[in-house]
Each structure stands twice: as structure tokens, then as C-alpha cells.
Design brief:
The chain is mainly alpha-helical and 148 residues long. It has a single domain, classed as Four Helix Bundle (Hemerythrin (Met), subunit A). Helices cover 86% and strands 0% of the residues. The protein is built from five helices and no strands. 23% of the residues are buried. Bound molecules: fe (ii) ion (FE2) (2 copies). One fe (ii) ion is lined by residues 10, 14, 50, 54, 117, 120. One fe (ii) ion (FE2) binds next to helix 1, helix 2 and helix 4.
Length: 148
């Protein structure tokens, strides 16, 4: 898959996160808690990588190019903290095999994540794509893709 813009790449990554999480929920819904916990670890790793590349690579470029340090990046950083807390709560529920605690933590998570993603997809990503030259944009997409 070839990505030419930040929006294309990070939207693809959001979709990958959503699909992985949906599979976790299918397993947990069937009461298959050990495999749900294994897949959740993959989801957790993918999510932490996504947040890491946004905060360490994307946001410094965004703030440098737009001069905005108290706008979309500040909101996203704050929302990441809530997302991570909800992930930790879901993880511990899965490890303990508690589907009721998992569902409770999932409710909190799903109250945060869709609006967080929607905001990034409509504001932060298009703004950074617009602020960059074609060459700078391709360079940034490569840095995001190659980050561990
Ligand atoms: Fe984010
Ligand atoms: Fe994101």
C-alpha cells in the first residue's frame, strides 16, 4: 500500500486499530477470554505505536509549521491519556477473565476513541498535509511509516 498523505496513512492506521479491536470484542463476546487477551496485546501495541508516532513525530512538525501549540495537538495529547487509561482497564479485565469489567471499561473507551479519531481526521491530519510541500509531506509519511 502506498500512502501519499499523512491523512491517508493515519486513517489507514485508525481503520487497522478499529478492526483489531472489533475482533477482540467478538472473542470476548463469546467468552473466549484467553484468545481475546492475546489479540488485545496486539491491539495495545498498535495503539501505543500510533500514539507514539503522533506525539513524537507528527505533532512537533504540526506545531513547528502552524505555530499552533494550544490547538488540536494539545487536545489530542489530553485525549490520549484517557484512551490509555481505558486500555489499561480493559487489559486488566481481560487478564482476569472478567467480561463484565471488560464491558464496563470498553464503554468508557468507546466514549472516547471515535470522537478522538474523527477530530484528528478532520482537523489535525488535513491541516498538516496542507501546511507541507509535496516533498516535505512524502518525507513525513515515510518517517511515520518506518517508525517502530
Ligand atoms: Fe491520536
Ligand atoms: Fe490518530
Amino acid at each position: 500500500m502506498t500512502f501519499r498523505t499523512v491523512t491517508e496513512y493515519l486513517l489507514w492506521d485508525h481503520d487497522r486499530l478499529d478492526a483489531t479491536f472489533a475482533q477482540v470484542c467478538v472473542l470476548a463476546g463469546r467468552g473466549e477470554m484467553p484468545p481475546a487477551a492475546v489479540l488485545f496485546d496486539r491491539f495495545h501495541n498498535l495503539m501505543m505505536r500510533h500514539i507514539r508516532i503522533e506525539e513524537a513525530i507528527l505533532m512537533p512538525v504540526f506545531e513547528g509549521k502552524t505555530g499552533l501549540t494550544s490547538g488540536p495537538t494539545e487536545a489530542s495529547r489530553r485525549e490520549h491519556k484517557g484512551v490509555i487509561e481505558a486500555i489499561i482497564a480493559m487489559k486488566s479485565a481481560l487478564k482476569n477473565g472478567s467480561s463484565s469489567r471488560f464491558l464496563e471499561a470498553r464503554r468508557k473507551f468507546l466514549s472516547l476513541l471515535p470522537s478522538h479519531h474523527a477530530k484528528e481526521e478532520t482537523l489535525m491530519y488535513p491541516m498538516i498535509d496542507q501546511a507541507l510541500t509535496d516533498e516535505e509531506r512524502l518525507d513525513l509519511v515515510t518517517r511515520l511509516e518506518e517508525a517502530i
